[in-house]
Amino acid sequence: MNYDFDKQINRRNSGSLKWDVADNELALWVADMDFETAPCIKDAICNRALHGIFGYSIVTDKWSDSYVNWWKKRHNLNIDKGALIFCTGIVPAISSCVRKLTTPAEKVLIQTPCYNIFFNSIVNNGRVPLESPLSFDGSSYSMDFERLEKDLSDPQVSLMILCNPQNPTGNIWNTDELRRVGELCRKYGVTVISDEIHCDIVRPGYGYVPFASVSETCAEISVSCLAPSKCFNIAGINSAAVMVPNPVLRHKVCRALNTDEVAEPNAFAVDATIAAFMEGEDWLNQLNDYLFNNRNFAEEFIAKEIPGFTVIKADSTYLLWVRLGTDSDGNEINADEFAEALRRETGLRVNGGCEYGRSGDNFIRINLACPRAVLTDALMRLKSYCA
Q: How many Cα atoms are found within 13 Å in the side-chain-facing hemisphere of 192?
């Protein structure tokens, strides 16, 4: 079956966070997609709705099986069903883990630029974010292991939040990189939360490496955050999981999630997840083809039409990370000021990079997960503003 990702769906006045914007504005900021989810998921939700009774729900064996089968087939990871815990979302899980696995005023290490909500999960819980910047050579990012070891050796650092694949840069970390992260964290007594929500949005022919699959060390010191929400566009269904191989660590995380009341599914969460992982693979494969054609189109457009901007090439996520360069006086363009002016003058809304850490001050993030016609409109607005 062929799926139509060119179909434009009006999301205004639908309660959408992303599209709660003015009539003239184009929303390419919040990281959800402007595509209908897979038909199998819609069918599962409709069938559940037709039942008509929406009482308290349980997490079924079929839910666990769907995770186990998906990660084994698609990512070559053997998951013990007993290591899985349902949660309502990856951000709630991360916040719960920050509260449970650290004490107030301790430091939580993040590799910047990184997903801005990591900062919220740290600061809102009275902990201190420690930015350990990735190495940037002007066109791509890599792990700066010398800096990472220095930062991990700080006795106040007890937790690291790893983004795998990385948001916003789109890096897919390889086995050697992840192994070194695990070894360093073991050496300095640091637990790793690996946010793997973007793992199924990858360039066709590529794959990601689950952190827990790399070594026994990586598995024993980590909490892996998994979900169908990003790749199947069902974030509003509130369905995710944490996978914790270490039974002692798993007990702590389980208590954290239950204490915070984020370990119980709503009436649709379980069925939607099962449908996604058991029946949605063909839809996802076609989605990735479309997304990475969008990425190629945007990269070529910006390279040709907007001199001075540099697109960071990536093999994961539907997020385009773009370096803005300098102004006429040779000063680096401030990303947040640029994004605000772009929105004000053209109606195009993107993310300014300052919110992703200090190393993002000269970057913007553009959401490519939209029909090609919408993306073309957005790029033309960007070009007109930069002319």
A: 30
Q: Does 164 fall in a domain?
A: yes
Q: Domain check: are 259 and 297 in the same one?
A: no
Residues 231, 305, single domain; the answer is no
Where a domain ends, among 279, 313, 347?
A: 279
Q: CB count, 10 Å around CB of 384?
A: 12
Last residue of a domain, one of 255, 279, 303: 279
**Same domain, yes or no: 161 and 230:** yes
Domain that holds residue 370: 26-39+281-386
Residue-wise pLDDT tens for the chain (387 aa)?
899 999 999 999 999 999 999 999 999 999 999 999 999 999 999 999 999 999 999 999 999 999 999 999 999 999 999 999 999 999 999 999 999 999 999 999 999 999 999 999 999 999 999 999 999 999 999 999 999 999 999 999 999 999 999 999 999 999 999 999 999 999 999 999 999 999 999 999 999 999 999 999 999 999 999 999 999 999 999 999 999 999 999 999 999 999 999 999 999 999 999 999 999 999 999 999 999 999 999 999 999 999 999 999 999 999 999 999 999 889 999 999 999 999 999 999 999 999 999 999 999 999 999 999 999 999 999 999 998
Instruction: Report in angstroms the alpha-carbon separations of 332 from 10, 29, 135, 143, 362.
Output: 37, 22, 18, 24, 6
Let me know if residue 9 belongs to a domain: no
Strands 363-367 and 84-87: unpaired
**Pick from 245, 247, 198, 237: nearest CA to 217:** 245
CA atoms of 37 and 233, how far apart (whole Å): 6
Please count the structural domains in the chain: 2
Q: Are residues 248 and 137 in the same domain?
A: yes
The rounded distance, in Å, linking the Cα atoms of 210 and 72 is: 11
Instruction: List the one residue out of 171, 326, 158, 167 whose CA is nearest residue 252.
Output: 158
